Amino acid sequence: MEENKTTTKETTTIPAKQEQAVSVSPETQPVTRPPPKLNKSPLHGLWALTNRDLRKWYTNPIQLFTSLIQPVVWLGLFGKALNFGSFISGSGIPIAQQNAILQSYFGTTSYFSFLACGMLSFVVLFTSAFSGMSVVFDRRFGFLNKALSTPVARGSIIMAKVFQSDGRSLIQAAIVLVIAVILGMDISHFNIVGVAGAFVVIFLMGTGLSALFTMLALRSSDWQTQVALINLINLPLLFASNALFPLKIMPTWLQDVVRVNPVSYANDAVRQLLIGSTVHLAPLPVDFAVLVGFAVVLSAIGIVLSWRLLSK
Residue 236 and residue 238: Cα distance in Å, rounded? Predict the structure, then answer.
């Protein structure tokens, strides 16, 4: 028997191709840029979030119109119907004495002008109340979770709600003031400094109130609860202030409440600046000091609470 010879497969070796060296000039080399640094500024994203909420408002004219109905109705109906001057004119008192009586109670001879200044705080109060509702809806629709996942500081999320409310309040207050002038508000004391100072007062008041209502909504996802809180706080702040009636005609216990209500100091400052009211709760510097403290303290508390309570 012939021995089986093992067959071996011939392996063919393919010579490797030599790679051609490509000479790259320094001009053609790709530029490697470092990754962008994370913006840790506390103001990062503040304008973007503020503008987002404002855009939802000014692109919806129906919402703007409905927000002005209530103060205009109060000006046109309540302000004109409740004419305190007519109560005195039928008593046979001379005109000069009638004006002196009105001046002693309202700081002006026109109750409508007195009420028109109070309506500015009315607008700010109710606009600020719904800054908290924006937080509730952002949480329900998932936007708040997305914002919390970004490098934007939590304090910026809160202050964006406050500043968008301030912007809305200033615009609406300007419109109400124009309507009040058309309806007969006394403008004899109007000047640039006074009008500008009145809007600074509105800004300070709106900042403090918006921070307050935003704090109340930090952990809330139920809009019904937030509406209940708005009604619980807004009406006492309005009626326990000098927005509608002067301090002199109120009972003693209510006068004490009015003196600790920041809305009263806003009304007092606006009346001194716009209509030259001679009857005031406090001197103008005191009014500003109270409002600055109110705005700064509540804003600071809102930012601190956002660090602890604002979560996904």
Answer: 5
Residues 96, 229: Cα–Cα separation, whole Å:
46
The tokens of 98 are what?
């009638």
To 10 degrees, what angle do helices 262-274 and 192-216 make?
Answer: 160
Q: Compute the distance between CA of residue 118 and CA of residue 230 in angstroms, rounded to an integer.
A: 19
Spell out the per-residue pLDDT of the chain, length 312, in tens. 444 444 444 444 444 444 444 444 555 555 566 555 555 566 667 888 888 888 888 787 787 777 777 777 777 777 777 766 666 665 667 777 777 877 888 888 888 889 889 888 888 988 888 887 888 888 887 877 788 777 777 888 888 889 998 998 898 899 889 989 988 888 988 999 999 999 999 999 999 999 998 888 887 777 787 788 888 888 889 889 998 888 888 999 999 999 999 999 999 999 999 999 888 888 999 999 999 999 999 989 888 887 776 655
Distance in angstroms (rounded) separating the CA atoms of residues 183 and 115: 12
Dihedral, CA atoms, 188, 192, 193, 197, nearest 10 degrees?
A: 90
- The Cα 94–Cα 193 span in angstroms is 35
Q: What is the spatial distance between Cα 182 and Cα 186, in angstroms, rounded to a whole number? A: 10
DSSP state of 35: P
